[in-house]
């Protein structure tokens, strides 16, 4: 059974404005703004690990959830990419590195990868030129470097991992 699409990521120029528009358009609720902040992101704009600090917000409703990401940096998340669909996200993927090997063998290159301190893959993106203008994102089932917009610690999910949402109280 293949993994199913968890979310659709969009690049936007102005995150606050985009959240308001997407709330109106869909009726979905969106999280407070957070940041995916790491010093070990690499893509074809800067192939060695470098800082990446993307402002993001996720919808409460889904799957598929909507992820809004503000333009950032010079590479895969930059304004030069234009607004619109950026990636289809597969969360908590059990074998992100195996998936990378398999897809590279099938001609879908990696362009955009975040590593942990041990060099293991936190997440990676396929190159949009290799799949009809859309990237796939594979996210490992480990704590991801998410902080609140002001840099303070994020909420924690039920696993204790950083999260854009607080744990839901039991109903
Ligand atoms: Fe994503």
Helix content: 10-25%
Strands ordered across the widest β-sheet: 1-4-3-2-6-7-8-5
| Whole-number count of domains | 1
Radius of gyration based on Cα positions: 15 Å
- Tell me which oligomeric state these chains represent: single chain
Broad CATH class:
Alpha Beta
Question: Separation of termini?
Answer: 31 Å
Count the DSSP helices.
Answer: 2
Sheet bearing the most strands, described?
A: 8 strands, mixed, barrel
CATH architecture: Roll
Q: State mean pLDDT (0 to 100 scale).
A: 96
The CATH topology is what? Answer: 2,3-Dihydroxybiphenyl 1,2-Dioxygenase, domain 1
| CATH evolutionary superfamily | 2,3-Dihydroxybiphenyl 1,2-Dioxygenase, domain 1
Q: Rough shape?
A: globular
Bound molecules: fe (ii) ion
The strand count comes to: 11
What's the SSE pattern?
EHEEEEHEEEEEE
Low-confidence stretches: none
Strand content: 35-45%
Give the helix/strand class.
Answer: mainly beta
What report would you give on this structure?
The chain has 171 residues and is mostly beta strands. The protein has a single domain, classed as 2,3-Dihydroxybiphenyl 1,2-Dioxygenase, domain 1 (Roll). The chain contains 2 helices and 11 strands, in the order E-H-E-E-E-E-H-E-E-E-E-E-E. The protein has an 8-stranded mixed β-barrel. The mean pLDDT is 96. The structure holds fe (ii) ion (FE2). Fe (ii) ion binds next to strand 1 and strand 5.
């Amino acid at each position: 059974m293949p993994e199913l699409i968890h979310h659709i990521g969009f690049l936007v120029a102005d995150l606050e404005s985009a959240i308001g528009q997407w709330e109106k358009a869909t009726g979905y609720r969106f999280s407070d703004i957070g940041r995916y902040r790491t010093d070990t992101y690499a893509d074809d704009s800067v192939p060695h690990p470098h800082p990446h600090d993307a402002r993001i917000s996720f919808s409460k409703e889904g799957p598929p959830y909507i992820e809004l990401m503000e333009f950032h940096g010079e590479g895969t998340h930059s304004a030069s990419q234009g607004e619109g669909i950026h990636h289809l996200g597969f969360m908590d993927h059990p074998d992100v590195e195996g998936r990378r090997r398999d897809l590279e063998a099938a001609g879908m290159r990696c362009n955009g990868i975040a590593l942990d301190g041990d060099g293991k893959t936190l997440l990676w993106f396929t190159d949009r030129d290799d799949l009809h203008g859309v990237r796939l994102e594979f996210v490992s089932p480990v704590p991801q470097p998410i902080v609140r917009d002001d840099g303070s610690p994020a909420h924690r999910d039920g696993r204790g991992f950083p999260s854009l949402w607080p744990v839901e109280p039991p109903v």
